[in-house]
Amino acid sequence: MKILVTGAGGMIGRKLVERLAADKALGGKAITGMTLVDVTESPIPDGCPQGTKSLVLDYSERGVATTLMQERPDVIFHLAAIVSGDAEANFEKGYKINFNGTWALFEAVRLEGEQSPYKPRFVFASTLAVFGPPFPDPITDDFALTPTTSYGTQKAMTELMLADYSRKGYLDGVGVRLPTICIRPGKPNKAASSFFSGILREPLAGVEAPLPVGDDVRHWFASPRSAVGFFINAATIDTATLGVRRSMTMPGVSATVGEQIEALRKAAGDKAVALIKRVDDPFVATIVKGWAGRYAPALATKMGFKAEKNFDEIIKVYQEDEMGK
Amino acid sequence: MKILVTGAGGMIGRKLVERLAADKALGGKAITGMTLVDVTESPIPDGCPQGTKSLVLDYSERGVATTLMQERPDVIFHLAAIVSGDAEANFEKGYKINFNGTWALFEAVRLEGEQSPYKPRFVFASTLAVFGPPFPDPITDDFALTPTTSYGTQKAMTELMLADYSRKGYLDGVGVRLPTICIRPGKPNKAASSFFSGILREPLAGVEAPLPVGDDVRHWFASPRSAVGFFINAATIDTATLGVRRSMTMPGVSATVGEQIEALRKAAGDKAVALIKRVDDPFVATIVKGWAGRYAPALATKMGFKAEKNFDEIIKVYQEDEMGK
């Protein structure tokens, strides 16, 4: 079993590769080699099979997709993308990388299959940004694709194409719409969602953290460990039961900021909570208002995708995986 | 006011151009010229302004979109496409023409606007094939894009892109999801839906017509005249109230085959109905089973799109427009 991972140098990509290296198998089949692709060097963790290599490549550049598929990976984890803010600021670049680049991967698979039979599992990292307001509460699997960003549009278009390539038998696609990942390790970033991790991560380390929204803001979360679990499950489920709908909203924890804070209090006490500093940031507050707080991920749940049950669990995962507790 | 029509040689395209030529204006502004594009010669009807030309061009060929937009049409009616069966049989061709070709038109508009401000109304002919089973009855505006054909996928992807280009202010898009057009003038064709027109058109002309499905099959219809009305309305509505959702399911008549037949009986008597011959065609029957029979086109209705009320009206339109009655 050969595996290709794009975006292998990113936060989730690295964790996915570490998990695959530790498992040494996927869906009961031994992993014989992994090709890790990113625009920067992807670390090769201990335990990877010998035939593992890290390639510094932009998957969307001409010819790259064809070269990657000539190795005929059995499973492709396509995590690489440019992020929402970048795609919004750079219209052409967003379509070129997020949409055309991914289409080039699909096409390379299809054309490889024209040489001799080839139909890999293609796991695609999608996003809840395929949905935009106004939306119902919760957002169900049947709700319309209504992105309000170029990033969400590119992902939604790719989801449709993934389904069509799967229906035609050119590949075996599964699209995974990730919740907001929390608690992200590392430093705060410029994403509008950064504070959702920051208000837990920083106080757990004894550091102050800004909170730019009210306690009643509700959002949809899963841990990095769950995200890796989603990708592994997407690679191994029986897609025969999926029919033509190949992209699924992942399960998650629906929680308000207030509930996040109470979970922090339970885990680390009032002293930790006191490190959360209320700040005014109307820009972030307005963006966050456009996000949904609840989903009804019926299909993914039926297909065995699992997230945490509450924020106590999400904090525990962070303490175990990032703080060595 | 300059107008560009692609697919101007097709059945609806010709009727649209005739209507524009008769109206001599669109949204209260005089039409000064029309550019009619199709892969075959588009007829130029009487009454067209002097600056009207018919170009035999494939809009999806390299460079064509740029050339067309250099004339800076105020309204673009994009009706050209390859049909469902062709797109299904010829995968690459379908994406190249229906998707990439339309994207090239969007891009040509955007790049023209980079020279100096330009933001035309872009009316896009979409399809109810953006929806596939299983679906609710009726299908609402909020229902997921779930195409089960490459044609429907290409149209759904284009709808998403039309919304994104509109949101970014590069063009002012309106997508029109057409019902099955009935009664189509002319001869039966190979479309699975051909019989819906045939069982009325042929008996009205005293000719036998095959019926390959049962009386209880329900479908969604509008006349060619209504289709033209949809496009005119799409060109003139105030899109400020639409928000990010730019493509709409058009209103129509939900009717069973049995109701079609009763309308025929009212219009032309038992003798006409007797010309309908029951035939067995499991292939067509299976395809038709995958189609929805009812929609709830709330947004389009609010935006002033209008179809017939029942099949009596649809037959009357055919008699007036095609039989000179």
Report on this model:
Chain A has 325 residues and is an alpha/beta fold. The first copy, chain A, has two domains: 2-178 and 223-249, 3-Layer(aba) Sandwich (Rossmann fold), CATH 3.40.50.720; 194-220 and 253-294 and 309-322, UDP-galactose 4-epimerase, domain 1, CATH 3.90.25. Helix content of chain A is 41%, strand content 19%. Chain A has eleven helices and 16 strands. In chain A, strands 5-4-1-6-7-9-13 form a seven-stranded parallel sheet. A three-stranded mixed sheet of chain A has the order 10-12-14. A two-stranded antiparallel ribbon of chain A has the order 2-3. In chain A, a hairpin with a 2-residue loop joins strand 2 and strand 3 (29-30). In chain A, helix 1 (11-23) crosses helix 7 and helix 6 (194-204) packs parallel to helix 8. Chain A binds chain B through residues 91, 132, 136, 141-148, 150, 153, 156-157, 160-161, 163-164, 167-168, 244-245, and chain B through 91, 132, 136, 141-148, 150, 153, 156-157, 160-161, 163-164, 167-168, 244-245.
Short description:
The structure is a homodimer of 325-residue chains. With 325 residues, the first copy, chain A, is an alpha/beta fold. Chain A is 41% helix and 19% strand.
How many independent structural domains of chain A? 2
Strand content of chain A: 15-25%
Radius of gyration of chain A: 20 Å
The coarse silhouette of chain A is: globular
| Largest sheet geometry of chain A | 7 strands, parallel
The total count of helices of chain A amounts to 11
The CATH homologous superfamily of the largest domain in chain A is termed NAD(P)-binding Rossmann-like Domain
SSE pattern of chain A, N- to C-terminal: EHEEEEHEHHEEHEEHEEHEEHEHEHH
